[in-house]
Amino acid sequence: MISNLLNKFEEGFLNLLISFMTLLVFGEVIARFFFNTGFLWIQELTLTFCGWFVLFGMSYGVKVGAHIGVDAFVNTLSPGPKRLVALFASILCVIYCGLFLKGSWDYLSQMYQIGLPMEDIDLPAFIVHQLDPDFAWEVLKIDVEDNGPVPVWMSQSILLIGFSMLAWRFIQLTIAIFKGEVDGFKLADEAKESMHLIDDAAQTATKNTHNKDDK
Q1: Which contacts (CB < 8 Å, 24+ apart) does range 41-44 have?
Q2: Which of 2, 4, 126, 166 is packed most tightly, with the most Cβ within 10 A?
Q3: Residue 118 in 3-state DSSP?
Q4: How far apart are CA 49 and CA 55, in angstroms?
Q5: CA 148 distance to own-chain centroid
Q6: 177-201: burial string, b at 16+ Cβ within 10 Å, e else
Q7: What is the DSSP string of 125-192?
């Protein structure tokens, strides 16, 4: 049950992000081409949502097998060596995530200490007015006197969240390979998916032809 809830949360959150991005870009295009105006904050917010979408979605891609991999060599191996290679690769992925987590922590720590704000995105006024100025700056690094710009460490905290989730996925995969539950990475097969699309199109065309002949 918990797993299903997490799946629905991940899918819902990703759908929400891509929907917001689409609406923001659509609104900016309409404003520029029809009203000869624009909003500076839309571009920055769209880029932020894009970063969240990619970094949040990469762990979900590992889970559902949406990532593309080169497995031509691995598929030629017998089950034993194939499992060892997959185990080695998954451990390397965990180490890779660990390095990025360390770098993300160092970067966000510096952004927090400096109190660097985003250029064009401010918190809603009703939230800013409710914040204690001392608490807002000393704890959250939000400058209430400057209309409460969103601090960079908040907007880019997805670096820690995303790579933590990705590391957890790879740890789960490593354990599953070690126990023999799976023999390697679950990867997307674009060629196979393309052939399915071709087959579906061919079947549709055949049905349409038969329907015309019947008429």
Answers
A1: 41/120, 41/121, 41/122, 43/120, 44/118, 44/119, 44/120, 44/121
A2: 166
A3: strand
A4: 10
A5: 27
A6: beeeeebbbeeeeeeeeeeeeeeee
A7: HHHHTTS-HHHHHHTT---GGGT-EEEHHHHTTHHHHHHHHHHHHHHHHHHHHHHTS-SS---B-HHH
Taking the whole predicted model, whether its pTM rises above 0.70 is answered as: yes
CA atoms within 13 A on the CB side of 140: 18
- Whether the CA torsion 184, 185, 190, 195 is positive or negative: it is positive
Q: Where are the alpha helices (DSSP H) in 36-78?
A: 40-64
Say if CB 65 and CB 50 are below 8 A apart.
no
| Per-residue DSSP letter, 68 | B
pLDDT tens for the chain, residues 1 to 215: 666 787 788 889 999 999 999 999 998 899 888 888 878 888 899 999 999 999 999 999 988 888 888 777 888 888 888 889 999 999 999 999 999 999 999 999 999 999 999 988 999 888 988 889 899 999 999 998 888 999 999 999 999 999 999 999 999 999 999 988 888 888 766 556 555 556 665 666 666 665 555 55
Do 20 and 49 form a contact (C-beta atoms < 8 A)?
Answer: yes
